[in-house]
Design a protein that fits this description.
The complex is a heterodimer of chains A (about 450) and B (about 425). Chain A has 13 helices and 16 strands. Chain A has about 450 residues and is of the alpha/beta class. In chain A, strands 1, 2, 3, 4, 5, 14, 15 and 16 form an eight-stranded mixed sheet that branches. The longest helix of chain A has 27 residues. The relative contact order of chain A is 0.16. The radius of gyration of chain B is 22 Å and the shape is globular. In chain B, strands 1, 2, 3, 4, 5, 14, 15 and 16 form an eight-stranded mixed sheet that branches. An eight-stranded mixed sheet of chain B has the order 6-7-8-9-10-11-12-13, with helices on both faces. Chain B has twelve helices and 16 strands. The chains are: A alpha/beta (about 450), B alpha/beta (about 425). At the A-B interface, helix 10 and helix 13 of A face helix 9 and helix 12 of B.
Chain lengths: ~450, ~425
């Protein structure tokens, strides 16, 4: 996965931006399905006197953060910025924008009615050819609720009914008319895979493969074997004009993207033993697993995950809704982190995504209760920098460092308190949400005139 | 015939007395004590516990000799938490039907088998499993009692729920505690598709139950069977609450009318749009069991859902209870309560909503849910503000007995917290 720095870093002066967006309409060379997201023009911003959790493990008291053209220009205690809009943040806390690596917003919107259930293409165990972004409804009223909880970036994944659910997409949590307008520029696509109970149940009930865990693994392996052969044909056709390229196969294209290291694997996998098996599948076919999701048993193999460099995306305390979730413990996140592996708190929930700070707080408290020392400065990485790492966007967002995108959340108090609320949420330096200003609280089309928030205005 | 129905009435009034081994007296000394009988805490207080009950609470109490002294200085002490809507004891693994006893009448995979029909005649008390692993997981986080509710199967009325204690030994304390049902769009699908048909069916059934005589009742296809009618008649005579799951404002008002017309104490469960009809609820003294975090417009019944629902209801004078709405994680009650405070509800009212209020609304016995003298000694010593996320329960007492601070989850933690230990995992 090699990403051009220029593509990622969209620091363009405002005037040029307006020009570009006008020209964009006439542009014909745009790649199909490419991001059309453009940062909104934002005045220079100086947030002063905050307690800053940087996402790099540091906690800075009474610190100022200076934002120019949507990027973090300086972090310190005496920044001179006469041109900036100043936000006095004394007594408040500033963190990187919250990132959820596991969401279905837009694919499973509210209201959850039959006409909106677009998250699981349950028609074949291998639907690697479908893309979650093609189900995203940008008017899902759940997007602004997540924004009010500080979520600036989120990965939308297909569901887990299939061994290969399809491609996931990383979005900026901005109000938009099209999903392309939300796509995170330069973020790699992902492949959703699922172990365990779900695929074998869905297809087993139809008397088709897979109906067992061994059937799951055979399904994975035969698909990867086909992908390797498909890739060989592609490579051969590229170097030899005589050779016939294979007929286009969307599922194979996704798997080849993984084998080429361009598409990141996000693998739904609860049980420790199944994680070990999936690591062997990846080893057999020469691909990497970026993260195990719903990894309730990661604590049992945290050493293995650390050695393999695989992230674990975990809930704070969900458990027991099925047998593979029965061994969840609240210390999971801290034990994985403590073993030196990449630990992430994820939601998989339109409720939970609004309070990932609270989910991280519960994981931190569970660790402390068990005598494992964890600070807020460390725990914030579970929902910021580590999540950015798993999504392949860590160079761009997930921490408060000079040069990074100004994706920021200003909290009215310590965000690990249940009483904390996001006061202001910035994406690329633009104030998309302000708790004190109804004009900065976006509403979707669906909200207008009918939901509680839509009626309030 | 009439006499027979007196039995549940009596049970409802008194509860089943819990008779565990008599513990020695306990004195909990030095904590900040929230008795939930007043909004202000007692500082550096002493709680005396004897015979499973709170004996006395005060700032300067003599500690009788022989009492176990427990130091709680720097800690907060509250009554144990009470979850007013759960399937605790009825559910082990949500996705495994053989471990779930919360409903009847669900169609099986074999379509040729007609689903068993049972509505108000269903009663969960016989299936409650005291050995459920969910009980220790939740009690070590301070949940000491719970209402166990049936879930609608193929009838809007789900049946009788019960109350349990999460202590060791017997758990069932109040069988036939309340009748549960659902009158939202989900219930409508069970009676042909319209919400109106749900209300019509309920009203007709209550009308019939008033005058029910087994010898004269000739149920037709779709009517309640004798077992259901007998249960409904018993319910009307019992004075027990009718807990209705309902979200839409207009239907909440239907529930209020139903309670008024039939003299039934109605409790609203869910109530996503209850804030819209807060004044009517307050006037009728109809309590609402709120999941504070349920702010999504998840269905066309809930388009008005909002985070400050509980705060608005409380401000209007509605009795508010909280539910975690998740049986495995009833322990999240305190997070729910904390969020209500963040959205504007007074802290003391939020604590009451997870302690005293549910005990009062469901009649769990004099003083239950408080630390008043004579109350069952259910209490928790917290490391700090129990509504915060970064605190935890240090010790938990149920009916005067300290519970072991152990669960399946603590055992797993101990087995795996050190991956390099010398003892093989299977022997830890």
């Amino acid at each position: 996965m090699i990403r051009s720095r220029a593509v990622l870093r969209g620091a363009v002066p405002v005037a040029t931006l307006l020009l570009v967006s006008t020209l964009a309409l006439a542009e014909v060379a745009r790649e199909p399905y490419a991001s059309t997201y453009r940062p909104l023009p934002a005045e220079p911003l100086l947030i002063t006197g905050a307690t800053v959790l940087t996402g790099t493990g540091a906690r800075l008291e009474g610190t100022s953060v200076y934002v120019v053209d949507g990027r973090i220009a300086a972090v310190g205690d005496a920044i001179d910025a006469p041109d900036a809009r100043v936000v006095d943040a004394r007594g408040q806390w500033l963190t990187p924008g919250i990132i959820d690596v596991h969401s279905h917003l837009g694919d499973y919107p509210s209201p959850a009615i039959s006409s909106t259930q677009d998250g699981n293409e349950m028609t074949s165990p291998n639907t690697a050819g479908v893309w979650a972004e093609h189900s995203v409804w940008p008017q899902d009223p759940q997007f602004p609720l997540a924004l009010a909880g500080g979520v600036t970036t989120l990965q939308i994944l297909p569901g887990s009914a299939n061994l290969f659910g399809g491609r996931g997409v990383t979005l900026k949590n901005v109000p938009a008319r099209t999903v392309q307008d939300m796509k995170f520029p330069g973020a790699p696509a992902s492949l959703k895979m699922a172990c365990g109970e779900n695929p074998k149940r869905v297809y087993g009930e139809r008397n088709q493969a897979p109906s067992t865990r061994m059937g799951n693994v055979a399904g994975f392996r035969s698909a990867w074997a086909r992908a390797a052969a498909y890739r060989d044909k592609l490579v051969k056709a590229r170097g030899d004009s005589e050779a016939e390229p294979p007929e286009r196969d969307l599922a194979m294209e996704t798997l080849v993207g993984v084998l080429d290291g361009e598409i990141l694997v996000h693998n739904h996998c609860y049980r420790a033993d199944e994680m070990a098996t999936m690591i062997d599948v990846a080893r057999e076919f020469g691909y990497r697993i970026s993260a195990f999701h719903h990894a309730v048993e990661s604590y049992k193999v945290a050493d293995l995950l650390a050695a393999e460099g695989i992230c674990s995306a975990m809930w704070a305390d969900w458990w027991g809704f099925k047998l593979e979730a029965f061994d969840a413990i609240n210390e999971n996140v801290a034990l994985v982190d403590g073993a030196g592996a990449c630990a992430i708190v994820h939601s998989d929930s339109a409720r939970g995504i609004q309070r990932l700070n609270q989910e991280a707080a519960k994981s931190m408290a569970a660790a402390r209760r068990a005598g494992i020392a964890v600070t807020e400065a460390e725990a914030i990485r579970w929902i910021t920098a580590n999540a950015a790492q798993a999504l392949g966007i860590a160079e761009e967002t997930g921490s408060i460092e000079v040069g990074k995108a100004a994706d920021l959340v200003l909290w009215n108090r310590n965000p690990f308190s249940v009483y904390a609320r996001a006061e202001q949420v910035y994406i690329d330096g633009y104030r998309y949400y302000d708790r004190q200003d109804p004009e900065r609280q976006p509403l979707t089309d669906f909200d207008l005139g009918q939901t509680a928030r839509g009626s309030a205005r | 015939m009439r006499q027979r129905y007196f039995i549940p009435t009596l049970l409802f009034a008194c509860g089943l007395a819990f008779t565990g081994p008599a513990a020695a007296g306990v004195a909990i000394v030095g904590g900040t004590v929230h008795t939930v009988t007043s909004d202000e805490p007692l500082h550096d207080a002493v709680i005396l516990v004897d015979q499973g009950r709170i004996q006395a609470v005060g700032a300067s109490l003599q500690i009788p000799s022989g009492y176990e002294r427990v130091n709680a200085s720097g800690k907060l002490v509250t009554p144990g938490l009470i979850e007013p809507y759960s399937q605790l004891g009825l559910m082990e693994i949500g996705g495994e039907a053989a471990t779930v006893d919360a409903r009847v009448g669900v169609a099986t995979i074999d379509a040729s088998v007609e689903p068993y029909r049972l509505g108000p005649g269903f009663d969960v008390q016989y299936a409650i499993n005291p050995a459920s692993t969910l009980l220790p997981v939740n009690r070590v986080d301070g949940v000491t009692r719970a209402v166990v509710a049936p879930v609608p199967g193929n009838d809007p009325l789900a049946g009788w729920g019960a109350a349990i204690r999460l202590g060791e030994g017997e758990v069932l304390t109040h069988p036939r505690l309340a009748l549960f049902g659902q009158i939202d769009a989900g219930a409508a699908t069970l009676v042909g598709g319209s919400r109106s048909a749900v209300i019509q069916r309920l009203r007709l059934a209550l009308e019939q139950a008033r005058n029910y005589r087994p010898s004269r009742y000739r149920p037709e296809e779709g009517d309640y069977r004798h077992q259901d009618m007998a249960a409904l008649q018993a319910f009307l005579a019992s004075g027990a609450p009718l807990v209705l799951t309902v979200h839409r404002a207009s239907e909440i008002l239907q529930a209020v009318s139903l309670g008024r017309d039939y003299g039934i104490p109605v409790v609203i469960h869910g109530g996503a749009e209850a804030w819209k009809v807060a004044d009517a609820l307050a006037e009728a003294r109809v309590p609402v069991i709120v999941d504070v975090l349920d702010n999504l417009p998840l269905s066309y019944d809930q388009l008005g859902a909002r985070l400050d629902n509980a705060a608005m209801l409380f401000a209007a004078g509605v009795p508010v209870l909280f539910t975690a709405e998740e049986t495995h994680n009833a322990r999240l009650l305190r997070q729910v309560a904390g969020n209500a405070v963040a959205e504007g509800m007074p802290w003391a009212a939020a604590l009451s909503a997870v302690t005293r209020r549910p005990a009062e609304v469901f009649g769990l016995g004099e003083g239950t849910g408080t630390l008043a003298p004579g109350a069952p000694a259910d209490l928790v010593i917290w490391s700090g503000d129990p509504l915060e996320l970064t605190t935890w329960a240090e010790r938990v007492m149920i009916d005067g007995q300290w519970i072991p601070m152990e669960s399946r989850q603590t055992r797993l933690l101990e087995r795996y917290r050190d991956l390099e230990g010398e003892v093989p995992f299977g022997y830890r």
